[in-house]
Amino acid sequence: MVMNTRYDVPGPQDEHSSRFLPFMLVLFVGSGCAALIYEIVWFQVLQLVIGSSAVSLAVLLGTFMGGMCAGSLLLTKFVSPKRHPLDVVARLEGLIGVCGAALIVLIPLVSRLYTAVDGGGQSSVILRAIVCALLLLPPTVLMGATLPAMSRYVQASPRGVSWLGFFYGGNIAGAVLGCMTAGFYLLPGFDLSTAALVAVAINLIVAALGFALSKRAPYTALTPDIPNDVAPANRVPRSVYLAIALSGLTALGAEVVWTRLLSLMFGATTYAFSIILGVFLAGLGIGSVVGASLSRESKQPRAMLGWTQFLLALATAWGAFMIARELPWWPLDERLAPGPWFVFQVDLARALFAVLPGAVLWGASFPLALAAASEGASADAGQTVGRVYGANTLGAIAGSLITGLVLIPWIGTKGAEQVFIVVSAVSGVVVMLPLLRRPAIAASTCALAVAALFFASQVSAVPVGLIAWGRSLSWQGTPHALTWGEGMNASIAVTEEAGGYRNFHVSGKVEASTEPQDMRLQRLLGHLSALMHDNPKAVLVVGFGAGVTAGAISIHPTVKRMVICEMEPLIPKIVSQYFSGANHGVAKSRKVSVVYDDARHYVLTTREKFDVITSDPIHPWVKGSAALYTQEYFEHVKAHLNPGGVVTQWVPLYESTPDVVRSELATFFSVFPNGTVWRNDNSNGNGYDVVLVGRLDDEPAIKPIDVDAWQSRITQPEYAEVKASLAEVGYGSVFDMLRSYSGRGSELAPWLEGAEINRDRNLRLQYLAGLGYNENRGTEIRNEMLTYRTFPADLFAGSPASLALLTQQIMGQ
């Protein structure tokens, strides 16, 4: 078969094949649905293993899309065109299903091997790449081969080429269905294995239907034996391949930028990411159908592709304008919403405004590129489709990696958007070069290129208030920013309020501050962790924040070494300077070693053990953070404690619900059954947050806290700085700190009955928390817990006078 839009070379099966094309479209819908479910499941599972840092995500995405690219290019080299395309597609889908089922078993096995081998350092990235390649390349290569395989069946005419665009659109429509089903139904309601098995079932159904169709749909292998007077020159349209590669680069690059910025507005929940991805995929699907229709009628698909690239430059500028200048100021207060689904509708509307125009044009680019590349293409249509698909995928890989690892840290999201506008214009010029002999086209091309440059120069940076307040910007107002920046993993800001209090913001929310309730919590978390251990020497701190917790621990005289895990380098290097008075200059302490990696990955792979491990992670509703609240994570933490070791965990009561907090406590107590709860109220006496404490010495019998020994310790001269640090936040004695005792696992068992245990295989917490992050029920949750509290005579020891005083302070509150 020779695909050429200037003339048609009829194939033997053309007369009967068109009636089967709608059924083939259904196959591609199912294939796309399964592929997106797999992608979401595999990414979530592998992030638990190799971490969720920018480097880890780059390795994951690069491997996934690299496999798709390889499959699109290798199909025509290893599969003969004599094979029935539907039979080939059916076999590919069946093998994808087999791989999907196998990975349910293989990923846990490989993860155990990986964690046993990886000890961090330079080799860690290589090992992550090897793990991803071993697991993801087989199924993704098969996925990438399906479209080139099917392309061998269609008629080599504009109508036939347009069907390839419809197939691509159907595949994306299935992807939208898979994205929404996985994000809003399968994963919130079931677990990762169940979701993967649903995808396996879809693959097997598609394979069975494909085999059945192959028996009914006629196909005769076409040969390149075409008369010389009609054979094309077999030119390789390199400019089309380059243009579609650049289109892929801008598409994935813009998706990375816009997802990051929109998640500031929506709150970075797993639901917000599903909405943004769903809108982007829906736009691609709509655009591919439009592009396929245009390619059927157009005699100049190359020109259509060129105009589309110029329109993309304008659409990218439009998205940048909406996100920076309009959407953040919509007068919305999500706290007043009747429920999360109302908020999701508003988020959907905002995503449609910003993302959809560009996504439609990126979707239209693919079928138009197919049509343009088919002019003078080789006899094997699959080869042409594979090259176009491969070029587009290679560009997408480059766009996602360069944007996340280079452009955003280097020139910020504003600079990245400007680059995408210019690159889209360059892509348009590249496509139009052969047509510039025509004066009208040359003039319009120049005008559009100049317009693109103008719009690129007008792109605005997102307001610093969006980085600081996120979804609260419209009612919080513009803050007084001391500094702000956009790093590889997060956007950060430090602001100062009128009263002199400073706030540290990460990705649209306050992560730490010098306000009284936050300072008290951070010091409580630090000093309680150190005092719970008789002689803490080695400490692991999860999350740098403003450094106040780490700083509190660092001044304890027995501490000799402290490791702090932080994913975003801007935080210890820049943010810590603005809180040096509160954090005891911890960033410059000789005791401290900062590891820039995902904390879970570090705990999984380090050979070191610690006396104290304290964790102050971001809220559990933030996508990915629930991995630091799972039963398996706490078990790994427990395994990395020295004898007598202590683990502490921060749990917020605000921006949460009773079910979320119950899940967090039940999960922690499932590993540390004798763990205790210590509360921190805000300045108005309302419930704010709590600290969970687990000790190895409490198993099986509880080791009492010697109140007098604690008080004696902080009055020693070498603890003078510790005593002063406690006094600064209202803890004049250890009694003031110990009075915050609010219960323990055995007491809270009736309240925690039936609570969801957050496990690696379901990460149920991020879905629960994502539905309740607009609520503020901290006092209600605290009061529910306190109804179960008693004075535990076996938990505290000391003189009768000390115990009487402590009893009065705890129970008389």
Helix- and strand-based class?
Answer: alpha/beta
The total strand number stands at: 14
Distance between the termini: 85 Å
Radius of gyration: 29 Å
Fold and architecture overview:
This protein is of the alpha/beta class and 813 residues long. It is built from 28 helices and 14 strands. An eight-stranded mixed β-sheet has the order 7-6-5-8-9-11-10-13, with helices on both faces. It has a four-stranded antiparallel β-sheet with strand order 1-2-3-4. Strand 1 (481-486) and strand 2 (491-496) form a beta hairpin. Helix 2 crosses helix 6 (158-189) and helix 3 (54-78) packs across helix 12 (381-432). The model is unreliable at 1-16 and 224-234 (pLDDT under 50).
What's this entry about, in short?
By secondary structure, this protein is α/β, with parallel strands linked by helices. It is elongated, with a radius of gyration of 29 Å.
Question: Which features characterize this protein?
Answer:
813 residues; alpha/beta; Growth Hormone, Chain: A; 4 domains; 8-stranded mixed β-sheet; 4-stranded antiparallel β-sheet; 14 strands; elongated; disordered N terminus
Reconstruct the topology from this structure:
Layout: H1 14-17, H2 21-50, H3 54-78, H4 85-117, H5 123-151, H6 158-189, H7 192-216, H8 238-266, H9 270-297, H10 301-326, H11 340-373, H12 381-432, H13 439-457, H14 464-469, H15 473-476, E1 481-486, E2 491-496, E3 502-506, E4 509-513, H16 516-531, E5 538-542, H17 548-554, E6 561-565, H18 570-573, E7 592-595, H19 599-605, E8 610-615, H20 631-639, E9 641-652, H21 658-671, E10 676-681, E11 687-695, E12 705-706, H22 707-714, H23 720-728, H24 734-738, E13 741-744, H25 745-752, H26 764-772, H27 778-786, E14 796-797, H28 800-811
Parallel strand pairs: 5-6, 5-8, 6-7, 8-9, 12-14
Antiparallel strand pairs: 1-2, 2-3, 3-4, 9-11, 10-11, 10-13
Helix pairs in contact: 2-3, 2-4, 2-5, 2-6, 2-7, 3-5, 3-12, 4-5, 4-7, 5-12, 6-9, 6-11, 8-9, 8-10, 8-11, 8-12, 9-11, 10-11, 10-12, 10-13, 11-12, 12-13, 16-17, 20-21, 21-25, 21-26
